[in-house]
């Protein structure tokens, strides 16, 4: 028979094991936003959100890079203009989005030239933003198996650029690149940002929400995220959009359709309780025709809370940036401060 001392030892051991596995050490989370517009204006309402969340930095899209077939070279698209400087207390993290197919079309010499031009262009834009320096440059590219080697070589060249000496080069990471780590490879950087949005099939007709899909996260992250070798920041969506279908075929995303338009019963009729809406008449201003179907995709506080809970179970415990996409008062008004703070607290 086990004596009282042995029972006490067993009880202490059980409690110790419970606390070891049940208590996850909390690390500092730095909430902030993407700024994804072509003109930066220091709007009080947006600055208030940065202050509210005690944001130390802002991820600012500097430009897109696409391939220009006329000159057979990568070319800047819609670079940002800074009408106002960034707030003094906010550090800038410049972001450059590169269309993936560029790396199918350029050779090593062009890739090296691209790295040089990006470094110089970003540096000039940072100064235009009123900042004398920055510590991180993020490259946003959805690379694939076929573009991997050239993309990684480009990153290596970027890291060696004198302008970027001492700076962190980080990349964005999609779900498929986490699961398919062997074919996708691991980018030659120390840090990545996991983009937890745009994970469903946008072009497929139906009622699914392509922005955020719990099933897709289960498939691509559940068994793979914890072992990903790079330090990871996280981006979560707070945006909404109108996906247009004509004759059940994908026809694009309409920037003219807002929640107010969707709620206009003279313009749209909802299909039951689904997120599909039938256009009741022609809408020339938006390039839409009677009979077009809009899939109105948006993110609820409950969506964000569930996603943050899921991620917190599988991410390695470490300090990280939590980036909401994107800084826009019309989007943020759908969320209370308390709701977003609960999302942040899950990490």
From TrEMBL:
Taxonomy, superkingdom: Bacteria
Name of the protein in its database record: Lipoprotein
